Amino acid sequence: MLLFRSEEHVRRWYQESEMLAGATLTLEQQWELARVWYSDRLSPGWRRRTPAEAEGVFASAGLTGEFWRLTDPDIGGRQI
Amino acid sequence: MAELDTEVRLAVYRFFVDHGRPPVPVEVASALGTEQRSVEDAFRRLADAHVLVLAPGTPYIWMANPLSAIPTPFRVEAWGRTLFGTCIWDALGVVAMLGGTGTVHTWCPDCGEPSSVSVEDDRLRSGRGIVHFAVPAAHWWDDIGFN
Fold it and tell me: Order of strands across the sheet with A23-26?
């Protein structure tokens, strides 16, 4: 999860690598994700999110689709 | 999460923020008035639960996300502290965790140009660029040191 100057720099960095097929976020999306994900980490009541809850956080930052999927009816969920 | 594990988790984060490095097990044991072995067992349970990341083959903390025990290209200035995140998400996460005001210093991986992102009162104030995630979410913990 790296911060590049622009998409052109992402392309140059990864060149023909399959990594290029990853996902790009705006800084605003990244901040929103960081804010929601980590703002309660020092709270005594903090707990890991379920896969469905994590997908909800992604969706709140506009991040949807297969790349962000953690729930799968075949394999269950991937807790992160 | 077991009561001891919760106490250990909180002690780790408090120490990490206060000292700029994670505690070793004996330091947590001393703070909680318990046995070092019990803390090491708690560290392992927390690592198994993906709450902490231990340096391979050791009972020593590598990451207490969003904090990194080792310097990275994601330096954070927040709450009067200098800390490190493992990636841009975690670096901004350190700012979020410490009250929502701070600055992340990094470099473009491609051209090496320094870059800073500042947040004030939970709002992005300055910074530019684009974030790239190489690994799909379901596979982040396959190799948490590479995302």
Answer: A2-4, B130-133, A23-26
Chain B nearest C-alpha distance from A72 (Å): 10
Of A4, A31, A38, the CB nearest to B66: A38
Is the CB of residue B51 less than 8 Å away from at least one CB of chain A? yes
Helices marked H in B87-139: 88-97
pTM, to two decimals: 0.93
pLDDT digits (tens, 9 = 90+) for A22-45: 899 999 999 999 999 999 999 999
- CATH number of B68-126: 3.20.20.70, 1.10.287.130, 3.15.10.60, 3.30.70.120? 3.15.10.60
CA distance A55 to chain B (A): 9
DSSP B56: T
